[in-house]
């Protein structure tokens, strides 16, 4: 067992103050370009879809505009689905899998669904390959009133501005080796808590809602993804990331209580995907296509079961 004293910033059992947060921010560096790698792909879709800038991050608005992508010919008689990626910017396939779905598959579903996508909610996190925003706040714990993360607040406003109900929300994520080597130890140190080491599951899994698990919906996603990549087995205690599995590759979290992104729409069907990009059994392209498969599995299920 390790504790928070093993992290190089802060003191054990003492939450970070402004000095520690400033030290953490000073150690972050830009490692890739959001404008070059993500916005160019969004721009390439403008002939097929409606692209809207729904905000910009205040600490660098020119570098970090926020974009949504919508299928055309919206019809109030069709159900509406939200797809989000890059809530945690370091989770690369969440961003590029979302964009790949729009480029390759969205046309096949636009007659049945209105699709709204926010492909990269945290562009600073994308560039620095980071879980938090510059204020050491996790956007995926910040979907709450008066959100402390402007990334989350902007997405909440985007959803509200649609003035419609959502049938489903698929939120695209990854679980990486750095979750255990960096991000969870940093979280424990930031909050002055003990860090208890866990294992990183080797494979794909999803997170449903404890209050509304929709087991068949999760099964459909898992079964579609297994054509692309392997499904994560549970650990020796029957858990994935500390939570008991409810079926193969599925765990549940209380989405609303934790302020998670998948609670933002109050949709009847929600799933948070988790790709494992560090497995020697997968390529970057397979990780992206696993996210595409997850969205397809979800939408195919809804076509049959959510009339």
UniProtKB/TrEMBL annotation:
Keyword flag Metal-binding: yes
Names of the cofactor(s): Zn(2+)
Keywords: Hydrolase, Metal-binding, Zinc
Classification via SUPFAM superfamilies: Zn-dependent exopeptidases
Domain Peptidase M14: 30-307
Taxonomic lineage from the root: Bacteria, Pseudomonadati, Pseudomonadota, Gammaproteobacteria, Vibrionales
Membership in a protein family: Belongs to the peptidase M14 family.
Protein name: DUF2817 domain-containing protein
Transmembrane residue ranges: none
Pfam families on file: AstE_AspA_cat
